[in-house]
Amino acid sequence: MNMGQQRIGLSRRGFLVGTGGALLAFAAACSSSDGDGSGSEPSGPVIAHKYGETQVPTDPQRIVSVGYNDQDAILALGGTLAGTFDWYGDYPYGVWPWAQDLLGDAQPEIVGTASTNIDFEKVAAVAPDLVVGTYSGLTQAQYDKLSAIAPTVAQPADFADYGVPWQDQTRILGDALGKKDKAAELVSSVETQFDDVRAANPAFAGKTVLVGALKGPGQFGVYGPEDPKVRFFTELGFVNPPVTEQITGNFAEISTEQLSLANVDLLVWYAGGGYGDKLRAELDKTPIYQELDVVKAGRTITLEDAAAEAMAWSTVLSLPYALNEIPPRVAPLLA
Fold first, then answer.
1. Four-CA torsion 47, 48, 51, 55, nearest 10 degrees
2. Which UniProt keyword terms apply here (predicted)?
């Protein structure tokens, strides 16, 4: 997901130079020379991804997550985190409350943040036996640097960057960790919860939904079909309006005039990260927005609390919380 659009001011840039030769020597010592897991470590499954295929070691014990939310699925599967990516939230080790209990005694190193991106030296320093980044926008260059340190599983090729569905993410990581059955159980459990909520809210079925966000002063954007927040609603029975078919990534900026395209059955504003007040201020001074039928009918909702973040993360650990909190708020709008 282009999370720089989701959260104003976030950037993703990383660089590996610094200790150069020392880092490469360290990487060679803790991994095979080609990073495909084919050295002295027992051979595990082969995982396909955007940049090819990676043979991972059997039963990896030191896993580094460079994906924005991969840590949740890793912990849910019983994996041990040696390093993790701190997306946002100021929580210990980059792990949110819904996953903290699963950390146990582990104290993973923060190997990257949304503002600084991946620190390759820190990745190497924790001597991982597996690096994963399924919910990410890893470039070929970043992947090459990581795979020189340890076998690396990048984002899948079948979806947009930051667009892997939570089910696929869980299954991919389940395969990588040798926990295929556990992954299937986790996916089935959450899908059952979606089924139950959908059955309890038949009014959701077939209603069009658009999920938007504030991009900057006087600037708005909408999320595309592959964004997890949009998928959250379509899995509840909502459908995407035709306008989203024009979005090639998972987020597109729209002009103030294009807000007229937001006349849908339900308009959702994502305002996580404390942007709720800024969003409301911008909308209040945008006359064209006030004239939308969906606004006049009161079928808009702004999500900005922990439930919104659980929806944005969209993992097997966060989704149950979002399912408990968000549908009861939406249902009265469509009554």
1. 30
2. Signal, Transport
